[in-house]
Amino acid sequence: MNALLRVRALVVRLSGRRVVDEVSLDVGAGEVVGLIGPNGAGKSTLVRSMAGMLPAYSGEVRLGDLPVARSRPRELARLLAYIPQDTAMPFDLPAREVVAMGRYARHHRVGPTPAAAYRVADAALDTVGAAHLGAAPVARLSGGERQLVQLARAMAQEPRVILLDEPTAALDLHRQLHVLRLLRDQAAQGRGIAVVLHDLNHASRFCDRVVLLDGGRVRASGEPDHVLTEARLAGTYRVRATVRDDEDTRARRVTALHNLETAPPEGGASQIQEIR
């Protein structure tokens, strides 16, 4: 695998607590990697640190040979795009202008936004199915519409890696599938995609690999079929679930049946063997 982004022994501390604890993973060219796990597992903190938004206490994140922590913003923007969970924007620019801002790292001069940037922005908005929003002020858009605009902006950057934090959270069913297929299309163009997902069935269907986090640590990583097992879901999510092959999607389908009230055995989570 040609790894575009490497995370090695990454530790992120917030308020003195290790929220990300010795995490290592790769994101390769042409693949979608799903970051999954229960609430508080460290997924959002991890992806923010991968994007250079949070400093590491130790360990490192590298884009090829470039250390993310020591890269210049323009240099980083040519290689990596990050879409946060919260897409609220403090300005009232038209969506087309916001998407065109994704081209700033490609500009060779200071001044008005070049016409070429608007052409790329229009194409990106059309690709995500939001061409009709081009003239709309972003502050007046719904959460789902803002998510599409942010995705278009990331695509306009033409990065090598795209990091996304729950991109389907504010979307209806139709747009959820649309966005996930767009991520597959971006991977098919040779980009590396890492995406935080809560829907395990989306992760199973659309991701090449998944990384299961719990307590800030990697509990399992590998192909969805190998990671999403009934025993592992019981150990991390504390639910009784069935995992079966879905004839329609040809992926594993997770059905949560009920919560498990008993506590896991002492050290149980850490005893889950990591798959490589």
UniProtKB/TrEMBL annotation:
Database matches in Pfam families: ABC_tran (PF00005)
Domain ABC transporter: 5-240
UniProt GO MF annotations: ATP binding; ATP hydrolysis activity
Domain of life of the native organism: Bacteria
Tagged with keyword ATP-binding: yes
InterPro entries assigned: AAA+_ATPase, ABC_transporter-like_ATP-bd, ABC_transporter-like_CS, P-loop_NTPase
Keywords carried by this UniProt record: ATP-binding, Nucleotide-binding, Translocase, Transport
Keyword hit for Translocase: yes
CDD domains documented for this protein: ABC_Iron-Siderophores_B12_Hemin
Protein name stated in the entry: Iron complex transport system ATP-binding protein
Organism: Nonomuraea maritima
